[in-house]
Amino acid sequence: MRIAFLVNSIEGETSYYTTTSLALAALGRGHEVCYVTPGDFVLRPDNSLLIRATTLNGSKPKKPETLLNALKREQANVVTIDIREIQVLFLRNDPSEDAESRPWAVYAGTNFGRLAAAAGAIVVNDPDGLALAQNKLYFQGFPETVRPTTLISRSIDEIRAFIEDHPDGVILKPLQGSGGRNVFKIRSKGEANLNQIFEAASSAGYLIAQNYLPEATAGDIRLFLMNGRPLQRKGVYAAFRRVPAKGDVRSNLHASGTAEPATITPQVLGIAEKLRPKLIEDGMFLVGLDIVGDTVLEVNVFTPGGFPEIAAIHGLDFSEDVVIALEDKLRIRQLYVGAVSNRALATL
Question: What is the pTM of this model?
Answer without folding.
Answer: 0.91
